[in-house]
Here is the input.
Amino acid sequence: MSEKGQWAIETNGLTKAFGDQKAVHGISLAVPRGSVFGFLGPNGSGKTTTIRMLLGLAEATDGEIKLLDHQIPKELQVALPKVGALVEGPAFYPYMSGRNNLIRIDSADRFSDPSTRKARVDAALERVGLSNAAKKKVHAYSLGMKQRLGLANALLKPRELLVLDEPTNGLDPQGTREVRNLIRSLAAEGITIFLSSHLLTEIEQLCDHVAVMSAGKILAQGSLAELRSHGQTRLILRVDKIDEAVDILKTQGIGKIKFSKENMIAPVAEDIDVAKINEVLVKKKIKVSEIRLEHPSLEEYFVDLTGEGFEVVR
Amino acid sequence: MFAKSLSLSLMASELRVMFTRRRTWAMLFAIAMIPILLAIAVYLSSDRLAPGEGPPFLDRVTQNGLFTGFTAMLLALPLFLPLTISVVAGDTIAGEAGLGTLRYLLIAPVNRARLLVVKYLGTLVFALAGTFTLMAAGAMIGAILFPVGPVTLLSGDVIQIPEALGRMALVALYTTISMMGMLALGLFISTLTTIPVGAMTGVLIASGVSQILDNLPQLSWLHEWLFTHYWLDFADILRQPMELSSFGDNLLLQLGYVAVFGSLAYGRFTTKDILS
Here is the structure.
């Protein structure tokens, strides 16, 4: 096998048009191998359509896709066995047991080994905590259990890439935690994870890279640290003698102070020494009841990018 | 390696899925009930039926139970058998699309053309199971309720019981071949929609329209091109020597339908965006 490239997923000018509307409009993704890549965007922004194109379910109107260094759709059959995916919710035959559903899908993959099939299916069920419900028919499953079964399906074989579309949808808080832990442990094994979500907290907790999509376009892309640095770090301060404090802060190079209730808020450099400022204030007999740094949240940045409310924009 | 290239795993899995469904068994059960109800009805009113009255062969059932299957086949062919066939054929792709399992099969991955072939063969197995179920149920109930003996054919010749059973199997086989065109049509219609009931209805309507057209003498030029045209000609198997020309014509016509609608299904399905 040839040398593995830097990117697990690489797209160039990827476009999907439905009639006049461009659901995906010339996006260029670069998902580093080994990363946990968050694909964030409001509902209807084109995330699932993009995933469908990545997996060869839908044909791109324009642009190029490389999945694990294979051209898509040309080399789809070579690339897909190395990819596990959960696309737009789990889907199973309701009249078959969870276990038989997995056996069915694994049988469909002619690259998978029939002699290890049952062992692999059981291991996948074990991994998502479904062993006890393996023999139940899927129509008796709760949404959360179906979601887990969908994850088990993605884990039937050792994968190089997992594409997970809203993997915690429909899960209770406990299930959400478990799935997040599962994703972390998979990432620790070196599997690249491409995680789409409309939940910022999920992306922030799990991912090291992120792309923000809205209305079919990618608005920002990079490591989480890079995107965070777009925001402004702020100093939050509450003191008894405000006017004096303002003057002292000026001597420390902090201006543009705003006031919010009793708090003073000032934009500062990210690496400012808060303890030192506190010391200066206290030496001048100013009582400091609160002093802290507020780091820029991704949320603000994303709201800047996508507009308020994450609503359906079209 | 062989299993790999022929994708036997997928074929076996397809059959397992089909025969796990209660619906499949319910339909086979209903098919088996046709000869059974027929035999019971005839049994309860046997002395009131004059020769030649009712559907063809019906009067013979009382003389020889082995005719039950043939008679039931005649009754089932216009509507009931096509109904079950359209359920299975219409469900092939549309059913998977409706459930959403189609996307998981395709990213498993399954090559789309391979999936079509496997789906088609699966429906063919169902047709075979259906026709054999009907003939077998007919033979059994006939043997229970009526005397069984050497069978007098339409040509007047008499054949022994083992050969009669062989002819029954041939009739089942003939009917399965008769369904090949309709199954291919169903496969094609099934690639057009994600709503299985829509596809099933479409196939059933097609079989109805085809049978109506086949009954309009004004359209006689069209008749030999209709996929239902040779359906009832299985009676030729009940002559001595066997009349095989309709068998051949039927096979050719059905293969033609398979080629046309198979290609259409392939063209449609391999380029289709799976958005369900």
About this structure: The first helix of chain B runs from residue 2 to 6. The radius of gyration of chain B is 20 Å. The beta strands of chain B are 151-152, 158-159.
